Amino acid sequence: MSEPRNPGMSSLHAVAPVQPSDSPCAVDIDPVEYTLRKRLPRKLPKRRNDVYVNMKTDFRAQLARCQKLLDGGSGHREICVHGLGLAINRAINIALQLQASSQGALQLAANTSTVELVDDLEPEDADEVAEPLTRTRNNSAIHIKVFYPDP
Amino acid sequence: ALLPTTENEHSFFHDSTAKAHHKSTPQPVPPAALKLGQDGFKKVCRSEEHSPCPFPGLASGVLEMRVKEGSKIRNLMGFAMARMQGEKGLCGGGEGGLRQVVFTGSGRAVTKTITCAEIMKRKVGSLHQLTKLQYKVVKEVWENTEGGTSEMTVHRTVPSISILLSKDPLDPQEPGYQPPETIGALWQDKEGHAAPSAIKRPPEPSLFSSLPHCKRVCSGEGVSVSPLLH
User: Fold this and answer.
1) CATH assignment at residue B157
2) Total tally of structural domains belonging to chain B
3) Cβ contact A59:A98 at 8 Å
């Protein structure tokens, strides 16, 4: 479904320069100025044991949440830690930390995928004859199952 | 002994991923290493220590692509794709090239490593995948820039990923195995085999009602960040 139309676009670095919240200016799309608005990735499955790692929340808080899911009263046998783009590293870190502090009781099973993301380009000036545009790009994601293996 | 378990060292790992080593203070290393960079120390050398191959029993001739932070994806892919598809002039058309390739990367190169594997899966098709995560020990040598002759060595642990892509079937029981053509299907119903109880999330409106603790920080905005925070 996602053909390799532009391999460069799936690289994180291709999208990195644009920070919608920091800079209101547009990318390199002339002549009209656009605001780049990144939509959220869609269709997130969310079970009780799914954890979506982001770069906004404190790392230790996210690690603690995962730990709590695994050993709290509800004691899940497995949780899924998801990370997208820059958060991949953090997701891996969390999973490896959980494994290390479990004295080897926990196992990891990582899968990777590509997520299609949509950017909205909204014209800055409402008077200009510019159409709002959307662009899609790909980003990599990781899904790590952290689980106690069946005895 | 390299894997810390105490509470306050978690941030060390987090920082080391972000490669913030100029401002971070790695705690598990000798106290002398505090305030590296600010104290007139310069990193002169960085080398990865040998760690066991995450894929035991792998044939020795397998192409290993070591993805670094500064590697260009087009260079990596140009090389790897040519090897996997086989030089068209040499092999008489049809099936040629290598059967397997491994992409490895650590620290900030992890995302790029995954991207390379994802591109190759899309381009080649029908590839079996095995993903392994581990900590890698990186040795850094720092040198005093203020005339002194002192030098110190820092051992840093960074997360690393190894992705094996194979035209031949791999053991489906191995943790981290992914069958071919799961492109796109994974994010929607994640690991149906492992978690049959997975509930498909109902569409938009009920999304928020099912999250009672959801902070409505961005209810006025078209883009909502709430689902990611949970």
Assistant:
1) 3.30.110.20
2) 1
3) no
